[in-house]
Each structure stands twice: as structure tokens, then as C-alpha cells.
Design goal:
The complex is a heterodimer of chains A (about 450) and B (about 350). With about 450 residues, chain A is mainly α. Chain A is built from 13 helices and six strands. Chain A has one domain. Chain A is about 70% helix and about 5% strand. The chains are: A mainly alpha (about 450), B mainly alpha (about 350).
């Protein structure tokens, strides 16, 4: 039973991590595409239109990859987590089905129209199709996070005698206090990713001295959007989320922040330290006193429960992983603000396009927003453990009873091999598209 | 409400098989009949431009099945674990074939993705037929061994095949001679459908030849169909009861046979789109007849210990279904509108269309 859950979790974690690479870019990118298309409508400069169409090519590749890797996600609810599906399908099935019906159709239909229909429908309608792609991709995020929010903080349900969760209040699914902050935080983070990607493409063009005009445009947009979104990720959305975790999942909050023991006179914020699970303390700790209490409750001396306040089985089952995920996310987020602020300063002094070290740096920064996003997602999911539905349904009670661990291991290895191939080909394809650049686009 | 959702999901699945069915079919045609590079290119293009918007229907059907019949979703998806995961991999291979083929000009590169696209399309068509065969035949629900239930409730796990390879064994596997026959029917049907699509959407040099191919495939299909109707009775003796009790259900088999007979006149059909409609009837008629013969059962049980799964004992409670009824109708209207706009835009032959993102 133990390794059964382990392989099922590993498989889900692996497939969703790989999947999430793609939608996090498309969601943010769709915003930038709408922005360029809007600029084009206003000043009729062909440059903006080409930029929008070029980014839509990158979008389309990522969207395709998102579809390919997204279908397994939906299947796995049934294949690997059959009991969870049976018990909660009546509730989370609502939001998942709505995702398919409302946002996925919208996104895919209008993506095709955007790519093929420019000549047929004129610029205003073309802008509209781009906007609808944006709407579809953000609505997708909304429905997926509504599903996740219900698992993090279940609302509007009733539990029958046979253990099945029954929907009692549909609108509660969308007024869930967990949902809005999680959604905004997530969307801003996806704008960070796409801004960094676009800035990186811009830096690449400038350094390579080809497509320089577009290079400058992409770099400027990437830096401006990057700074704004990095700031918004931290405050207010990140802060709001942290407060929600402290309120609804105090055990997860203590583990995230690395508070092993409750301090009577206010909690310190840990900047660096390694959780030592044997002695139940942080090694090599660097911390600032009382800050955490203030950030969480706007009170320097308010007590925050540490891990010693909870029963062993209520604590997340992998505290170091949770702690590191959270700290990597926060650390990278902070660094992003600094880098983008610096880049904006150079832009303002008109030195950004010629200052090579910074251009190289920006070009190679691309993996980090992805890491920050994925560790952010891990923070939410590891924090929810050991539950699938927080406080109500244990992860161990959600797996498929008939699927043996050997089968899951076999399919996991298959996914790993296949996704490695897919990832490699994806990089080739994106690399080729970027290398061709906006000017050579035929549409 | 259960019936409403049953009809909606069956419709969406039907649309999925009609739409994605033709691009599976083009894969099969591509594998066996496309020899010249130009033909290969336009055929992959005729599928490549459309596959991802077709696959959206699968996602939608999955989501709605999950919402409306969670117990069915859970037992069937974990019960058919291995074949479903293999289907996922095949979907990925097929998509890679379509998306990557045109990216480089090297012949070897194209050959690799041609095989990937063709073989996975063929296997997917086969697997979908086998899946339908399994649903008609029923499974060892609850995993009963010697009259004792191995799992509580309706959970089961099917091996890929059982040593007897027989559909009437107590513990049938996914693949037996009956499901293989249904699998072949599916492959032939989708190949016909795909050929019709290629004729409709391209100016490929093999289009004329394909009409002859369809004619031959149709003969094979007619033979397979008659044979399957005979073995169907052995595997599921109750399958005609519904048609006797509710004679109006005969409309579904009539759809199927209209398609089947109509396609014998393929060479005389003037408009390509009419031929395409005939193979559409074939697919829709086949699926709806199978479902109608089972109704309200959605997965028969081959043992006496467990009740079959029906739309009633697997559905989510009334409130959830009623709420979903409201947003479901809105969603479906929107989808129909999008699809009409989109299909109008991508109408016409694909040869000159720009392919590749």
C-alpha cells in the first residue's frame, strides 16, 4: 500500500510538473499578445502586429504541448485516483467539466481563428480573437484553481454516509475564500514567466545583432511587464495567500516557514536554514525576529503556532520538501524584483540595449521563473498533505484500489521516457521558431 | 437528469469520434496508401490542422463524465488502467508525428514521424473499437473469484488478455476474439471515414484511387458487421431486448446501415461532402446502436455478485446534475457557435494552407 501511494503521487507530480510548464507560459503570453495587438490598433505600426503574431506562434506550440500533456492529467484522476474521483467527482467534476466546456473550447477555437483568419476578418476582429484566446486561457486557470481551491479549502459540500462528497452549494465553489488570491497570485506568476521569456528572446536578438528592432521591443516589454508582475506576485497576492494558509492550514504554514517551536512573543521570519527533522530544529538559521507575526497578523507580538502544536499525523508528510519549495519560491521572487528593477533603471538611462553583461544575464534567466512557479505549486500541494481534501480525505484513501504499484511504476517510467523525448522536440521547435524571428513569419 | 447527461455525453463522445475519427482515419490511409511525398504532405496537413481542436471534444467528454457519473469514471478508468495509459501514449505519439513532421526537410526525419503518426492512428482506432467491445461484453465487476468479491463495490482490474482469449470466460481480459472483431470494425470504419476526409479536403493525387479503396473496405466492413451481429448475440444475449421493447430505437441501426449501404455507391457520389456524411452516419449509428442496446446499463457485469453499472447507480446526486444542466446548456450553445465559425473559416481544400505554427 505504501509504495502504491508513493508511485501514484510521483506519477501525478511528474506529469503535472511537466504539463504546468506550458500553460504558465501561455496564460501570461496571451496578455502580452493582446497588448501588442492593442498597440497595433492604436498606432498602426506593423512592428506590433508582427510581434503579436510571432508570440502567437510560440503560444501555439506551447498550447499544443499543453493539450498533449493535459489529457493524461484528466485521465489520471480516474486511472490512478479512482477512489478520490468516485468520492469527490460530483463536486470537482463540476469545475473540471466547466474548464473543458467554457475555456478550453474558447481558447482552441479562437487560437485557430487568430492564426488563420487575419486576412478574412480585419484588424478589429483579429484583436477580438486574440482577446478571446486570452480570456479562454485565463478562464482555464480560474476553473483549475477553483478545483484546487476546493481541495485546499473544501466548501459547499455535504458528506454522505458512504463517504461520498455531495455538492450542496454550487456558488460556494467560486466564492471560496481560497480561490481569488490563489488565482491572482498564479496569473501574476504566469505573467512573470512570459515576461522573462519575452525579455530573454529580446536580449538574444540584440546580442545576435539580428532582428534588433524586435529585440529592443521584446526586451522593453519584458522588463516593464516583468517588474510590474514580479511586484504583484509578492504583494498583495503572495501576502494574501500566505495569510490564507496561516488561517486555513496552520500546520502547513508552520512547516513552510520552518517554525518548529511556538514562540510566545511573536514569530521570527526565517531567511535561511535547513530543517533538521531528527532534532526538530533549523540548522544554520538566519532569521529576523517578530517579522512573521507582523506580516501575518500586523501585530509584532502575535503568537503563531509552530509544528509542536499539531499532532504528527496532521503535519505535512514531507516537511523539508515543503520548506525548501516555499523558500525557493519566495527567494526567487525577491530576486526577480531586484533584477527587473535594475533592468528598468538601465532602460530609463538608455543603457540597457548596449550593456552586454545584463543582456546575457537576462537571456539565461529563463529557467528561473519556471522554477519559481513550479516550487510555488509544490508549496500549495505539499502543504495540503497528508490530505487530498484538506482535513477530510487522506491521500492514502484516494488511490485506485485495483491498480498495483508495479503497473503504476511501469506507466510512470513510460511517461518519463516519452516526456523526455517530447521536451527535447519542444525545445528544438521553439528554438527554431525563435531563430526565424518575427520578420520571417509568413502569416 | 441522468438521462439528459447520458445523452449529452454520448453526443459529445459521438462528435469526438466523428471529428477525431477522421484524423485517425487519415493516419491509417497515410500509412497504407500515401507513397509520394506530396500526398504524404497534404494528408498529414489535412489532419494536422484540425487534430487539436478535435481532441478538445475528448477532454470535454471526459470532464462531463467525471462530473455526472463519477462512480463510472472511477471504476472504468482504474479498471482499464493499462489500455487507457497506452491510449494516452499513442495520442502523444500521434500528435508528435503531426506536429514535428513538417519542421525539417530531411527525409529520414519525415519518415520517422510518418510512421509515428500512421501506426499510432491505426492502433488508436483498434483500441477504441476494443474498448467498445469491452463495454458491450461487460467485465468481471468487483473482481469476483470463485463467487467471492475481491474488491468492495464495483472496482475491477482487467489484464490485457486472459489465457483463454475468450469473451465468455468468467474473467475476460481487454483483448479477446470478440473485442478484436469490434476493433477491426473500428479500424475499417475510421479508415473509410479518413479516406472520405482526404478526398473532401485535399487535391491529393490518390483521391481517385481512394474511392476504390473505400469500396473494398466497405465490403470488408459489411462482412465484419454481419459476422459481429452473430457473435454479439453469444457475448451479450440481452442486446436485442431494448430494440424489441422500444422499437423506435431501431432508428440507430438504420443510421448505421444507411451509411454502410450508401458507401457502396461511393464511385457515383458526386459531392465529396455527401460521402463524408455517409461515413459519419456509420460512426454515429454504430456508437448509438451499441449504447441503445445496453441502456440504461453502461457497463454490464459478467458475474452475478455485482450489479451492472447503470446511469442511475453511478450518477452524481440530483442537485449537482441540475446545476450543471444550466451551465451545460450555455456551454454547449457557445461551443456550437465557435465550431460553426471555425469550420467555416477552415473550409475548402487544405493544400495551399499554411501549416506549422
Amino acid at each position: 500500500m505504501e509504495d502504491m501511494i508513493f508511485y501514484d503521487r510521483l506519477q501525478f507530480a511528474f506529469t503535472i510538473t511537466f504539463h504546468y510548464i506550458f500553460p504558465q507560459l501561455t496564460m501570461g503570453l496571451s496578455l502580452l499578445i493582446v497588448y501588442y495587438k492593442w498597440k497595433y490598433l492604436r498606432n498602426n505600426n506593423e512592428k506590433y502586429n508582427n510581434a503579436a503574431k510571432f508570440l502567437m506562434k510560440i503560444f501555439a506550440i506551447n498550447f499544443t504541448m499543453g493539450v498533449i500533456t493535459g489529457i493524461p492529467m484528466e485521465f489520471q484522476f480516474g486511472t490512478n485516483w479512482a477512489k478520490f474521483s468516485e468520492l469527490t467527482g460530483g463536486i470537482i467534476g463540476q469545475t473540471l467539466a466547466m474548464e473543458g466546456l467554457f475555456s478550453f473550447f474558447l481558447e482552441s477555437s479562437f487560437l485557430a481563428l487568430f492564426i488563420f483568419g487575419e486576412k478574412l476578418m480585419g484588424q478589429k476582429l483579429h484583436f477580438l480573437t486574440g482577446f478571446l484566446v486570452f480570456l479562454g486561457s485565463w478562464a482555464s486557470g480560474w476553473f483549475i484553481l477553483a478545483t484546487n481551491a476546493w481541495m485546499q479549502h473544501p466548501v459547499g459540500y455535504e458528506i454522505l454516509e458512504n463517504g461520498k462528497f455531495v455538492l450542496e452549494n454550487f456558488s460556494a465553489l467560486f466564492t471560496n475564500p481560497w480561490l481569488l488570491p490563489a488565482f491572482l497570485h498564479n496569473q501574476m506568476a504566469s505573467v512573470v514567466t512570459s515576461s522573462f521569456v519575452v525579455a530573454s528572446i529580446g536580449a538574444f536578438y540584440i546580442l545576435r545583432k539580428k532582428q534588433v528592432e524586435y529585440g529592443k521591443l521584446f526586451l522593453k516589454t519584458g522588463v516593464v511587464f516583468g517588474l510590474i508582475s514580479s511586484l504583484l506576485v509578492a504583494f498583495p497576492t503572495g501576502d494574501w495567500n500566505a495569510k490564507n494558509v496561516a488561517k486555513y492550514q496552520p500546520a502547513a504554514f508552520a512547516a513552510m516557514e520552518g517554525i518548529f517551536e511556538t514562540e510566545e512573543a511573536g514569530a521570527e521570519i526565517v531567511l535561511i536554514g535547513q530543517p533538521n527533522m531528527v532534532e526538530k530544529k533549523l540548522d544554520n538559521k538566519i532569521a529576523v525576529p517578530n517579522i512573521l507575526s507582523f506580516l501575518t497578523h500586523q501585530d509584532w507580538n502575535k503568537q503563531i503556532p509552530g509544528m509542536d502544536q499539531f499532532k504528527e499525523e496532521e503535519l505535512p508528510d514531507n516537511i523539508p520538501a515543503l520548506y525548501y519549495s516555499y523558500h525557493i519560491m519566495v527567494g526567487l521572487g525577491t530576486i526577480f524584483i531586484g533584477i527587473m528593477a535594475l533592468a528598468l533603471f538601465f532602460l530609463w538611462r538608455k543603457k540597457l540595449y548596449t550593456f552586454k553583461p545584463l543582456l546575457w544575464f537576462i537571456m539565461f534567466l529563463v529557467p528561473f521563473p519556471y522554477i519559481a512557479n513550479i516550487t510555488g505549486w509544490y508549496t500549495a500541494e505539499l502543504g495540503r498533505q497528508p490530505y487530498l481534501v484538506y482535513g477530510l480525505l487522506k491521500t492514502s484513501d484516494g488511490v485506485s484500489p485495483t491498480v498495483s504499484s508495479g503497473n503504476t511504476l511501469f506507466t510512470l517510467l513510460g511517461f518519463v521516457a516519452l516526456y523526455m523525448l517530447l521536451g527535447l522536440l519542444f525545445l528544438v521547435l521553439v528554438g527554431k521558431t525563435i531563430n526565424e524571428g518575427p520578420k520571417l513569419q509568413k502569416h | 437528469m441522468e438521462i439528459f447527461w447520458y445523452i449529452i455525453i454520448a453526443t459529445v463522445l459521438g462528435i469526438f469520434f466523428v471529428l477525431d475519427g477522421y484524423d485517425f482515419g487519415t493516419g491509417i490511409i497515410h500509412l497504407f496508401f500515401a507513397k509520394k511525398e506530396n500526398d504524404k504532405e497534404v494528408i498529414t496537413k489535412s489532419a494536422g490542422l484540425f487534430w487539436d481542436s478535435n481532441e478538445v471534444w475528448l477532454v470535454a467528454a471526459g470532464g462531463m463524465l467525471f462530473m455526472a457519473f463519477p462512480t463510472f469514471y472511477a471504476s472504468v478508468f482504474s479498471g482499464f488502467y493499462l489500455p487507457l495509459i497506452i491510449v494516452l501514449w499513442l495520442i502523444i505519439f500521434r500528435a508528435m508525428g503531426l506536429e514535428f513532421r513538417g519542421q525539417f526537410k530531411y527525409q529520414m526525419w519525415k519518415d520517422i514521424w510518418d510512421v509515428s503518426f500512421g501506426v499510432s492512428s491505426l492502433l488508436l482506432a483498434l483500441f477504441f473499437g476494443i474498448a467498445l467491445g469491452n463495454i458491450v461484453r461487460g467485465v468481471n465487476l468487483g473482481g469476483v473469484e470463485n463467487g467471492i468479491s475481491v474488491y468492495e463495490g464495483h472496482y475491477f482490474f482487467l489484464p490485457l488478455w486472459d489465457s483463454s482469449f475468450s469473451p465468455i470466460s468468467e474473467t475476460p481480459g481487454i483483448i479477446d476474439w470478440f473485442t478484436i472483431i469490434i476493433g477491426f470494425i473500428s479500424v475499417v470504419t475510421l479508415a473509410i471515414h479518413g479516406a472520405n476526409w482526404v478526398i473532401l479536403k485535399t487535391n491529393s493525387s490518390i483521391n481517385l484511387k481512394l474511392k476504390g479503396v473505400i469500396f473494398k473496405l466497405n465490403i470488408a466492413l459489411a462482412i465484419l458487421t454481419v459476422f459481429s451481429l452473430f457473435v454479439w448475440q453469444i457475448v451479450n444475449p440481452d442486446s436485442l431486448n431494448n430494440f424489441v421493447d422500444k422499437p423506435y430505437l431501431i432508428v440507430f441501426p438504420i443510421l448505421y446501415f444507411t451509411g454502410l449501404i450508401g458507401l457502396f455507391f461511393i464511385k457515383k457520389i458526386k459531392k465529396d461532402v455527401h460521402a463524408f456524411w455517409l461515413s459519419t452516419l456509420l460512426i454515429l449509428g454504430g456508437i448509438t446502436s451499441s449504447l441503445a442496446s445496453l441502456f440504461p446499463v453502461i457497463l454490464p457485469s459478467v458475474n452475478d455478485v455485482h450489479e451492472p453499472l447503470t446511469i442511475y447507480n453511478t450518477a452524481a446526486p440530483e442537485y449537482g446534475l441540475s446545476v450543471a444542466f444550466i451551465w451545460g446548456i450555455i456551454g454547449i450553445i457557445l461551443i456550437v457557435v465557435y465550431s460553426i465559425i471555425q469550420k467555416r473559416l477552415k473550409g475548402g481544400k487544405v493544400d495551399k494552407m499554411d501549416y506549422g505554427h
